[in-house]
Amino acid sequence: MDRDAHRIQIAEYAMGLLDDSDRQKVAHLIATDPDTRAEAALWTESLVDLMDVDDVAPPPALLSRIKADAFGAPDRAWWQDIFASEHRTTLVAVAATKITLIVIVVWLMTLS
Description:
Blueprint: H1 3-15, H2 20-32, H3 34-50, H4 60-71, H5 78-82, H6 88-111
Helix pairs in contact: 1-3, 2-3
C-alpha cells in the first residue's frame, strides 16, 4: 500500500468509515507502529477540533448512503430496486390505488 492510500485509510479509521476487517487491521497498525499511531492521533485531534460534540453513530441508512455516494452504489436486481426503502412510499401508494380500483370495480359489478 502506498503512503497516500495508507494515510487515507487512517483518516477513514478516524472518521469511522471502515468496515470491521479494515478497522481491525488499522487498529493493529496503530497499536504496533508509532508513525501510524501519530498519524491517527493527528486525524483524531483534527476531527475533534472541527466537531466539538459527543460521538454519535450515524443511522445505518445514512452511512450506507454516504458510502454509496462516495464509492458508488452497489448493483441491485430489479426486484431489490422496487422494494428498496427509498421506493417504499411509492410502492404502498400503488398498492393502495390498485386495491381501491378493485373495490370500485367489484362494487360496480354488484350494482348491475
